[in-house]
């Protein structure tokens, strides 16, 4: 391991929160023809490896309860630097999750294994997308590391914006 990697591992830049909503604990056995054979643990591991390769820790939370997701978002505001979220079916109707995400002043990446736009009409609306900074869907398992890369890229841009803002006179 290079010194640079060692330094990164010892002092991460901060942490990203990966949130998973309803029924995603069943991935691997739930409709594998749509969602693939990987378990949620597999996706979390791939996301964590990607995050760590950029010097970030990744914390993962899954819940089937809307209020638990809302609470996790509220707590993340002062603890994490970005949220990556696959809300599951909450995507299509949870205004509470929408409002919680809207209160965050950091990058939010929405990720879906499938492409909901190609599926039933009720999946075509996401109430999360209007408050997401970026959306990744339809790439299956590859979407998770991509979502992490998107979050890292967005964080990098935020830092550059801060760095290039002229000091107040
Ligand atoms: C999903 C798509 C949603 O419509 C669905 O309710 C899910 C999974 C996806 O990852 O493709 O639970 O978010």
UniProtKB/TrEMBL annotation:
Which enzyme type, at the first EC level? lyase
Matching entries from InterPro entries are given as: DHquinase_II (IPR001874), DHquinase_II_sf (IPR036441)
Give the E.C. number(s).
Answer: 4.2.1.10
One GO molecular function term of this record is: 3-dehydroquinate dehydratase activity
Gene3D superfamilies per record: Dehydroquinase, class II
Question: What's an example GO BP annotation here?
Answer: quinate catabolic process
Q: Which residues form the signal peptide?
A: none
What keywords were assigned to this record?
A: Lyase
NCBIfam families per UniProt? PRK05395.1-2, PRK05395.1-4
* Annotated PANTHER family: CATABOLIC 3-DEHYDROQUINASE (PTHR21272)
- This one is known as 3-dehydroquinate dehydratase
């Amino acid at each position: 391991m290079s010194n640079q990697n060692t330094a990164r591992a010892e002092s991460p830049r901060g942490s990203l929160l990966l949130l998973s909503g309803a029924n995603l604990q069943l991935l691997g056995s739930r409709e594998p023809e749509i969602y693939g054979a990987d378990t949620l643990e597999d996706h979390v591991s791939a996301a964590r490896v990607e995050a760590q390769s950029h010097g970030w820790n990744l914390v993962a939370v899954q819940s089937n309860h809307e209020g638990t997701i809302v609470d996790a978002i509220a707590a993340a505001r002062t603890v994490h630097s970005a949220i990556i979220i696959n809300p599951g079916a909450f995507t299509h109707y949870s205004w509470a999750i929408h409002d919680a995400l809207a209160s965050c002043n950091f990058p939010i990446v929405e990720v879906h294994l499938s492409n909901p736009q190609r599926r039933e009409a009720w999946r075509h609306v996401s109430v999360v997308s209007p408050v997401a900074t970026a959306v990744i869907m339809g790439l299956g398992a590859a979407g998770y590391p991509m979502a992490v890369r998107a979050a890292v890229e967005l964080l990098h841009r935020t830092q550059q914006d801060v760095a290039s803002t002229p000091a107040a006179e």
